[in-house]
Amino acid sequence: EEVSLPDLDLLHDPEDELLCTNLMDLVQATLGRAPLGTKRCSRLLMPAQLLAQVRTELLRLACSEPCGLRGALLDLCVEHGKACHDVGHIAVDPTVVPTFQLTLVLRLDSRLWPKIQGLFTSGPAFTPLKLSTGFRVIKKKLYSSEQLLIEEC
């Protein structure tokens, strides 16, 4: 029986899988305490579909790197209208010299509910804001002068 390259899953790295799971937990924690410049405290919620898409994209972008996902620096940004808020910076493995930088640009859900939900709460309570399933990832190699790679999902 013949086996094709995709069947062998040669690019699958179990260490990167575990690192990515931990990274996504850290991303969610960072988003959970992200200041967006509003008077109210906000908590950004990542839908499960977005979480899965981002995870897949980060693993795909890391597979061609010398240290895999361990060599990544991740910058988190959230677009809100025309503004882009910087909400966090994560070194995936602080013991490894970074070889590439990923900028993950997430978007607030533009549907009506996030815009009006503040009307139903009083006081400075946390207001959960749901993120859209669309996102953009910008990859910059830190050891090369190659152009930026921008992935829109």
Automatic annotation (TrEMBL):
- Signal peptide (from-to): none
Source domain of life is Eukaryota
Is Cytoplasm found in the keyword set?
yes
* Chief site of localization: cytoplasm
* Keyword tags: Apoptosis, Cytoplasm, Mitochondrion
Q: Which InterPro entries match?
A: RTP801-like, RTP801-like_C_sf
> Any coiled-coil ranges, and where?
none
Q: Which GO terms describe its cellular component?
A: mitochondrion
Q: Per its record, what are the GO molecular function terms?
A: 14-3-3 protein binding
Q: Where in the cell is it found?
A: Cytoplasm; Mitochondrion
Q: Alphabetically, which GO biological process terms does the record hold?
A: apoptotic process; negative regulation of TOR signaling; response to hypoxia
Name the PANTHER family for this protein. DNA DAMAGE-INDUCIBLE TRANSCRIPT 4 PROTEIN, DNA-DAMAGE-INDUCIBLE TRANSCRIPT 4 PROTEIN DDIT4
Can you tell me which family this protein belongs to? Belongs to the DDIT4 family.
Can you say what this protein is called?
Answer: DNA damage-inducible transcript 4 protein
Species, as recorded:
Centropus unirufus
Give the lineage. Eukaryota, Metazoa, Chordata, Craniata, Vertebrata
